[in-house]
Design goal:
alpha/beta, Rossmann fold, Beta-Lactamase, 2 domains, five-stranded mixed beta sheet, 10 strands
């Protein structure tokens, strides 16, 4: 029997929703507000969650974000059930990661169908579900605070990236500013933006780096660019623009194998129309150097980075 957590501060709505879903064969767990809903989901690991939006202590929007952001509950489909029906409300509901958005004038078959479809689409394997977790009120609010803090951090980084064109002049200065921003939020040894059409790689040095790692990094970046763009990219034909004002390349590092590249990461830079203009690449001599926080930040700013680079690239083309 599938389990569904329903959360609404109205006893009448909880009774109606519970009755509809119970008649469809679901085991229903009721929650009276947003905090209670998060606790119930972590405790029962249900097959789906139905959330009201306007609830005491924690709104349905925030509860949904907490659930969809955590690996222990991200696999559980969320359905928003609310009296709010403006375009803004629906947009905000979708941005929480919720799969469906229903209003409280629903017909019973509509609600039952939405829950059934969400569960089937999720395709949860009971054997792979995390163990139940008991959270007290402070645990829930700590997760909310952590989530909001991370989102604010990621949004601030994205805003700083998109502000670069207002002060940078030309492609090289734009890339330098971009790598500077990345260097403040991700601890890399080497970073590069490689543009295939321009046959140019802009490389920044963020820490003392062996020539051994530098050479391996360039080869890996070229391979990543060739794969991402599905075109030929030859290291010997590239114009390498190296930014190393502090002389970190080769400084106090010996090329005896100790300074080999241990971590490499690349992501495509998609320009107008979705075409891949090149790649952003990062490397480190430390194994597993880029943790989940760094990866989450990079995923968030992938679009803004590509947009800024593409705009600077096209401005240079038009200027020429």
């Amino acid at each position: 029997m599938s389990t569904v957590v329903i959360a609404d501060d109205s006893p009448t709505l909880r009774r109606i929703v519970s009755t509809v879903l119970s008649r469809e064969g679901y085991d229903v767990v009721e929650a009276v507000d947003g905090v209670d809903a998060v606790q119930a989901v972590f405790r029962t690991q249900p097959d789906a969650v139905v959330l009201d939006v306007q609830m005491p202590r924690l709104s349905g929007y925030v509860a949904a974000r907490v659930l969809t952001d955590d690996w222990q509950t991200a696999h559980i489909p969320v359905i928003m059930l609310t009296s709010l029906d403006s375009a803004t409300d629906r947009y905000w509901g979708a941005s929480t990661g919720a799969q469906r958005y229903l209003t409280k004038d629903f017909e019973p078959p509509q609600l039952a169908g939405a829950v059934r479809d969400a569960i089937e689409a999720a395709g949860l394997d009971p054997a792979l579900r995390p163990d139940p977790v008991e959270l007290d009120d402070d645990d829930v609010m700590a997760r909310v605070a952590d989530l909001l803090d991370r989102k604010l951090f990621e949004t601030s980084v994205a805003a700083e990236v998109t502000a670069i064109p207002a002060t940078a002049r030309g492609l090289e200065e734009t890339v330098a500013a971009l790598l500077s921003v990345l260097g403040r939020v991700v601890e890399y040894d080497l970073a590069a933006v490689l543009l295939v059409r321009e046959r140019t790689a802009y490389v920044g040095v963020g820490a003392n780096t062996a020539h051994l790692q530098y050479d391996a990094f360039l080869r890996s970046t070229v391979d990543a660019a060739a794969t991402a763009t599905d075109s030929e990219c030859v290291l010997g034909e590239l114009d390498i623009r190296l930014a190393d004002a502090q002389g970190r390349l080769g400084a106090d590092v010996y090329d005896d194998g100790e300074g080999a590249m241990a971590t490499f990461l690349s992501m495509p830079l998609r320009g107008h129309g979705g075409h891949v203009a090149g790649v952003l690449a990062l490397s480190s001599a430390r194994p597993s150097a880029f943790g989940e926080t760094a990866l989450s930040t990079l995923r968030l700013i992938e679009g803004p980075v590509a947009m800024v680079v593409e705009s600077a690239r096209l401005s240079g083309v038009h200027a020429g």
